Here is the input.
Amino acid sequence: NPAGSRDIVTPSGCSCGTALVDDGTRLYCPNPGCPKKALHRLEKWLSTLDVMEFGVTILRRLFDSGRVRSIADLYTLTSDELARYERMGEASAAKLVQNLRSRNNPSLAEFVAGFDIEGIGLLMVEKAVAAGFDTLGKLRQARQEELATIDGFGEITAAILVEGLRLLQPEMDATLDAGIVAILESAAPEGPFSGLAFCFTGELTTMKRSRAQALVKSLGGAVRNSVAKGLSYLVTNDPASGSEKSRKAASLGIKVIDEATFMSLCAVDPGSATAGR
Ligand SMILES: [Zn+2]
Here is the structure.
């Protein structure tokens, strides 16, 4: 070591007794049952869902006593129990339970981000949702390679999300099975494009791209911003442009169609495409 250099001291263990893992970008406790992480997850859940007045102090007491260890446990709390437990007034206890239960329709992004997967915040899940992974089922089925192509993701984030969803599946299911929390899914309507995903590149002549994307969604299809496996069609008026998207589509065997073909798939005649809406 050069003179004057100092070793950077990193903590070697978590308070749960597990050795921390340094993956180069972050230092984390790999123990899925880590109590410190479990408590942090509960705090994250309450803040992500914006549950009012359910403070850290009461949460910590419920956690330390073992009464609330998972998000699902929160929804088994009754106001009677809380009033006795915390010796708070019955009205306050009732309010607390009501506050908790009134925030029962999180968006998919809020639900997943609330589970406190390292590095997977609201914005990241929203990006995945926008890329077509708009139900919990689709997110769970998504493969790492697919997620890695989402704008703002990458191999590491994709891997963390896949692993996090896998490890947390029992707790997520238990939370939903409690029957209070339901994800408000903005799932695409059923239609002729259900199960199909479209990506657009280059200029369209009869409509703006945003209109074409809205058309796909209105017919039940999904819109992707990048070309990856699972994409059904790349729509471009210039398939010979040699753009990266066209080349990638060709290499993956994805159908490349022009605007006119897209319009015929939509069964929309070009004259009426710009009308309406
Ligand atoms: Zn730990």
About this structure: Confidence is low (pLDDT under 50) at residues 269-277. The two ends are 68 Å apart (CA to CA). The pocket of zinc ion is lined by residues 14, 16, 18, 29, 31, 34, 36-37 (CB under 6 Å).
